[in-house]
Amino acid sequence: MNAHFQWFTSAKMRVLGHLIIISASVSLLGCKSFNYNRLNKNIDRYIHSRAANDYFQGLLIYDPIKNDTLYSYNSQKYFTPASNTKIFTLYSSLKTLPDKIPALKYIVKNDTLYMEGTGDPTLLHPYFGDSSAVKLAQNHKNISLYLNNFKDSRYGPGWAWEDYDLYFSPERNSIPLYGNVVTITNNGSLLVNPEHFKDQVVPIGYGVNREFYSNTFYFDPQRSDTLESPFIIDSTLTKSLLEKVLHKKVNIVQKMPNGQKQVLYSVSSDSLYKRMMEVSDNFLAEQLLIVSSSTLSDTLNGARARAHILDHYLTELEQPPRWVDGSGLSRYNLFTPGSMVYVLNKMYHEVPRERLFNFFPIGGLTGTLKGRFIGGGSPYIYAKTGSLGNNYCLSGYLLTRSGKTLIFSFMNNHFTKSNSEVIQYMEPIFTKIRDNY
How far is residue 222's CA from residue 201's CA, in Å, rounded to a whole number? Predict the structure, then answer.
């Protein structure tokens, strides 16, 4: 009886121990669920606060490992994304472009180099300074240039016409040179790059940087900073700029000769992606879509690249975007937070983490997030900003103190306050997510 009683007591204790463990686990899960619910209620209070009740907001927070939506508010509604559009441009480039940017397509016939552009934005660019195409051309006696493969508009639909003279709104074309901008600096005397425009710079203070219909530029000699202003592009100007750098005549031809075209490559593609995302470079974004189209056919057209991506890689999007340019300059663009998170999630699973995060501005440290969303010791936000008048969006990756990586898209449209006020309102939401998930 004693042995039987001891066995029974031992078994009973084991069962009781299992029940305690199960009870504790359920209790912990319940506590965790309670904390998440309390956090979500706190986020709700911010979203519906008096500070934010007079403009349109959307927020989606997603766990890419658990495949779980942690918070959603208006995430299926369409917003003006501004430069968050560049997230889709980045994804498009990653899916279509090789490790190096295609710089030219060319054919050599006898002693003549025939070449056509791919939209590569790095040729003689002030930041990249690539000269791959120049070096190729210098090795040939005769140069013929074909420009009619560009079948797109010089400006995107819905771009603000009054931005024509501002650095962030250069024209699009097949063979960009010098970033399609004139750079003017006062260093005792005016330094103009490219020098072709030196005699077209008027040294006076004026209300605009350039005449609307001509390449006449204005630079106040009293200013100490550098001025960048887009120039008007045509075939004659492209020919002249190339002739000056090549020191030889360039012929414009109406067609390429028959034959297999070779491809010349320039700089690392990742260097363009990082620059585009970090400083929100509109010119690079627009030209990257054109370069993407060059890998699909000989016709350069950004719309063709966008359609290819939507039709081949993003068919499962629940809210297909209205996507009209590469940069987000156009107010015709319409994207949902859900679509942003969907593409960010695809990149998170398809691109090595270190490489992917390297493309994005880092909260508090780099690019358009420098001084914003400071991590308090270590950065916790890697994300793309998007701002137009009355709109501010932020989409990317958030690292929590518990070691999780979350994907988010926070879109704010139609406010009349400053961007700084909206950012100040967003920041405590992100810190609560960081500290509690």
Answer: 14
Task: Identify any residues that bridge with 146 across adjacent strands, giving them in sequence order.
Answer: 116, 253
> By the 8 A CB rule, do 58 and 75 touch?
yes
How many beta carbons lie within 10 A of that of residue 417, not counting itself?
16
Q: Which residues pair with 49 in a beta bridge?
A: none
Predicted confidence (pLDDT) per residue in 145-183, tens digit? 999 999 999 999 999 999 999 999 999 999 999 999 999
Instruction: From 358, 394, 165, select the one nearest 273 (Cα to Cα).
Output: 358
Nearest to 384 by CA among 421, 356, 414: 356
- Write down the residue that tokens 């051309």 correspond to: 137
| Adjacent-strand bridge partners of 250 | 143
CA atoms within 13 A on the CB side of 146: 21
249 closest CA partner among 355, 145, 124, 344:
145
pTM of the shown model? 0.91
Say which residues have a Cβ less than 8 Å from residue 126's Cβ, sequence separation at least 6.
178, 179, 181, 183, 193, 228
What is the per-residue DSSP string for 366-382? SGGGBTSS--SSS--EE
Backbone Cα Rg of the chain: 27
Which of 431, 437, 434 has its CA nearest to residue 46? 431
Q: Where are the domains of the chain?
A: 43-89+297-436, 90-294
Tell me how far apart the alpha carbons of residues 339 and 343 are, in angstroms, rounded to a whole number: 6
d(CA 37, CA 45): 12
Q: What is the number of other CB atoms lying within 10 angstroms of the CB of residue 320? A: 14
Number of DSSP helices (H) and strands (E) in the chain, helices first: 10, 15
Residue 384 CB: number of other CB atoms within 10 A? 30
221-270 confidence digits (pLDDT tens): 999 899 999 999 999 999 999 999 999 999 999 999 999 999 999 999 99
Report the topology of domain 43-89+297-436.
Answer: Beta-lactamase (3.40.710)
Find tokens 């005549």 and name the residue: 249
3-state helix/strand/coil string of 81-134:
CHHHHHHHHHHHHHHHCCCEEEEEEEEEECCEEEEEECCCCCECCCCCCECHHH
Cβ partners under 8 Å of residue 165, min gap 6: 208, 209, 210, 212, 229, 230
